C-alpha cells in the first residue's frame, strides 16, 4: 500500500455475523466483528456470560470457558472475514475449519470477560485461508493459535 492509499475498515454487528456464518446459539461464539480490513485482519468480540450452557459443567464451582471454544471463536471470526471478502456471485455456502497449529492457552476466561479475537491473515490460496489469532481479555493474551479454513461454494 502506498502512502496515498487508505484502508477502509468495516464492521459486522450480530445480524451481519449471522448472515456470514451458519452457526447459531449455543455455538455462535462471536457477538460482533470490528475493524475488518478486507480479508487481511479483524477483531471479533465475544461477551462471556454465566448463562451459557458450558458453564453448568465446566466447572460448577469455578466456571471457566473451555479452551476449544476460544479456538472455535477465532475460527468463526476468521471464517466470517473470509466470507465477507468473497460476497457476490461466488459467495461460499460453508466454511470448514481445517487445521489448528501452535495453540497455547495462557490464562482462564471467566463469565464477565470480554474476549477479543485478533485475527491476521498469513496467506490464501484458492479456497484455503490461513490465519494467526490471539484471544485477548483486557489487552492480555489468553490464547493463541494458527488455523486454516476452506470455503465451499457448492
Automatic annotation (TrEMBL):
Question: Chief localization class?
Answer: cytoplasm
Q: Which Pfam families match?
A: FabA
Q: Catalyses which reaction? A: a (3R)-hydroxyacyl-[ACP] = a (2E)-enoyl-[ACP] + H2O
Q: What is the lineage of its organism?
A: Bacteria, Pseudomonadati, Pseudomonadota, Alphaproteobacteria, Hyphomicrobiales
Q: Which organism is it from?
A: Alsobacter sp. KACC 23698
Tell me if Lyase is a UniProt keyword of this record. Answer: yes
**Can you name a GO cellular component term?**
cytoplasm
Q: Does the keyword Oxidoreductase apply?
A: no
List the subcellular locations.
Cytoplasm
PANTHER family for this protein: 3-HYDROXYACYL-[ACYL-CARRIER-PROTEIN] DEHYDRATASE
The active site is formed by 58
Q: What does this protein do?
A: Involved in unsaturated fatty acids biosynthesis. Catalyzes the dehydration of short chain beta-hydroxyacyl-ACPs and long chain saturated and unsaturated beta-hydroxyacyl-ACPs.
State the EC number(s).
4.2.1.59
Q: Which GO terms describe its biological process?
A: fatty acid biosynthetic process; lipid A biosynthetic process
The record's family statement is: Belongs to the thioester dehydratase family. FabZ subfamily.
What does the UniProt keyword field contain?
Cytoplasm, Lipid A biosynthesis, Lipid biosynthesis, Lipid metabolism, Lyase
Q: Which GO terms describe its molecular function?
A: (3R)-hydroxyacyl-[acyl-carrier-protein] dehydratase activity
What name is this protein filed under?
3-hydroxyacyl-[acyl-carrier-protein] dehydratase FabZ
Q: Which HAMAP family match?
A: FabZ
Amino acid at each position: 500500500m502506498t502512502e496515498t492509499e487508505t484502508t477502509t475498515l468495516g464492521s459486522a454487528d450480530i445480524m451481519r455475523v449471522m448472515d456470514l456464518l451458519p452457526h447459531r446459539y449455543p455455538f455462535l461464539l462471536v457477538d460482533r466483528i470490528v475493524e475488518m480490513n478486507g480479508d487481511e485482519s479483524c477483531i471479533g468480540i465475544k461477551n462471556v456470560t454465566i448463562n451459557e450452557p458450558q458453564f453448568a459443567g465446566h466447572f460448577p464451582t469455578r466456571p471457566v470457558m473451555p479452551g476449544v471454544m476460544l479456538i472455535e471463536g477465532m475460527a468463526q471470526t476468521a471464517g466470517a472475514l473470509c466470507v465477507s471478502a468473497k460476497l457476490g456471485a461466488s459467495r461460499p455456502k460453508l466454511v470448514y475449519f481445517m487445521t489448528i497449529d501452535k495453540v497455547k492457552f495462557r490464562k482462564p476466561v471467566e463469565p464477565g470477560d470480554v474476549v477479543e479475537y485478533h485475527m491476521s491473515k498469513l496467506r490464501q490460496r484458492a479456497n484455503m485461508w490461513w490465519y494467526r489469532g490471539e484471544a485477548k481479555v483486557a489487552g492480555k493474551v489468553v490464547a493463541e493459535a494458527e488455523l486454516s479454513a476452506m470455503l465451499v461454494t457448492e
